[in-house]
Specification:
Layout: E1 2-3, E2 6-7, E3 11-14, E4 19-23, E5 34-37, H1 40-48, H2 55-72, H3 76-87, H4 95-107, H5 112-152, E6 158-162, H6 179-186, E7 191-196, H7 203-214, E8 218-221, H8 226-231, E9 237-240, E10 244-246, E11 251-254, H9 257-266, E12 271-274, E13 280-281, H10 287-290, H11 299-302, E14 303-307, E15 313-317, E16 330-333, E17 340-343, E18 346-348, H12 352-358
Parallel strand pairs: 6-7, 6-9, 7-8, 9-12, 10-13, 12-17
Antiparallel strand pairs: 1-2, 3-4, 4-5, 10-11, 11-16, 14-15, 17-18
Helix pairs in contact: 1-2, 2-3, 2-4, 2-5, 3-4, 4-5, 5-6
Bound molecules: 5-S-methyl-1-O-phosphono-5-thio-D-ribulose.
């Protein structure tokens, strides 16, 4: 996607300097910075401390982390150690394990002398595939928006609510939940996006930044506004992303997604979740019982970072000194609240049957 007229992916290999580069998302939307990741440690820190974030991008970054380590030391034990160190960075998004396992499966049978090149090629491939997959999610999701626009018959824009940032910054490009929005806007459909702020990390500000760069009309709202807007007929559709989807169609996404699904259900508003198949954990069925929910630092809740009126970035405390905070980063929306899953192979019901129909190769014996 474009930033000030230049095309960017969220992660890329810079041939000129032979380095992996990322957009350092810690400073967005206030400051656009890119940074090189040079060592396995850099990759660990970038994922753990959310310089990069979003399930598909975490997976792609981990693949480059393995490649950097293979260049330094291509032995079996080094591969195993890198797998474990990267796997430990964040617990919820399954794309991390998906990418690490894919690297291991490809590299272990190879002679050590071939591993560095093969690992780098695989990391590039994972990124290119992610871009194409997200483009396809947009292609299939576009039909959902088109149908609603048709029903509205010119009576105002299709109003889409989204939570967190499942945009191009959370993937390599396009985004998952945002890809249908980009496709619809580019096809000339009148859309308006309600962007949930998504406390405590305010990923909604990343979504607003993205949509603003593309000229898509949107409004930034506090997390508690969605239910009210739905009750008053101001939301036509909800689309979110997911960090892990079970084989039975439960979706685990940023904290607060479940409440949006409940409100959408109560108001008969379609609630879709967009995802690449790398986000499906085929080994589990019950998201509430089986998905590990990341508990992040209480500092994220007690403090907030933003731009002062003078333009400086500053962190301030928002709660009384000494207050304890809880910070679960994700929640699970049961499949019964999900209207459909938008994937790279089409739209499926949020069910085992629906997913297996689209992805028959994953059916277990
Ligand atoms: O904690 P984050 O910012 O990594 O969480 C990101 C999300 O919850 C996204 O909605 C999810 O990864 C889907 S991204 C396409």
């Amino acid at each position: 996607m474009k930033v000030e007229g230049l095309s960017y992916r969220s992660i890329w290999f810079d041939q000129k300097v032979n380095q992996v580069k990322i957009i350092d998302q810690r400073w967005l939307p206030h400051r656009f910075d890119t940074v090189s990741l040079l060592s396995l440690k850099d990759f660990q820190v970038a994922i753990r401390d959310m310089w990069v974030r979003g399930a598909p991008l975490i997976g792609a970054t981990a693949a480059y982390g393995i490649a950097i380590q293979m260049k330094k030391n291509p032995s079996d034990s080094s591969l195993e150690e890198a797998w474990h160190l990267l796997y430990a960075t964040r617990p919820t998004a399954i794309n991390l394990k998906w990418a690490l396992d894919r690297c291991k499966t490809k590299l272990l049978p190879l002679p050590e002398c071939d591993r560095s090149t093969a690992a780098m090629e695989l990391a590039h491939k994972i990124c290119d595939e992610d871009v194409e997959i997200n483009r396809l999610i947009g292609y299939y999701g576009l039909d959902i928006i088109k149908d609603i626009a048709k029903k509205k018959n010119g009576k105002g824009p299709v109003r889409i609510l989204t939570h967190c940032n499942a945009g191009w910054l959370a993937t390599v490009d396009w985004g998952t939940a945002t890809s249908p929005m980009y496709h619809a806007f580019d096809a000339g459909i009148d859309i308006h996006v309600w962007v949930d702020e998504t406390r405590p990390r305010n990923q909604g500000s990343l979504t607003s930044w993205e949509l603003g760069n593309h000229g898509i009309p949107h409004q930034y709202i506090v997390d508690n506004a969605g239910g009210h807007l739905m009750q008053h007929g101001l939301v036509d559709l909800v689309i979110t992303g997911t960090d892990r989807t079970t084989a039975a169609g439960d979706v685990c996404n940023k904290i607060g997604t479940y409440l949006k699904a409940l409100a959408a259900n109560d108001n008969s508003i379609p609630f879709y979740v967009a995802l690449p198949s790398s986000t499906i954990d085929w080994t589990i069925n019950n998201g509430i019982l089986e998905i590990p929910i990341e508990e992040r630092s209480e500092d994220e809740v007690l403090r907030i970072t933003g731009k002062t009126l003078k333009g400086d970035l500053e962190t301030i405390q928002v709660s009384p000194s000494g207050t304890k905070a809880g910070n679960p980063a994700f929640d699970v929306t049961p499949s019964r609240l999900v209207t459909g899953l938008i994937t790279e192979r089409g739209v499926s019901s949020a069910s085992k049957k629906g997913l297996e129909k689209l992805f028959p190769e994953f059916i277990r014996g």
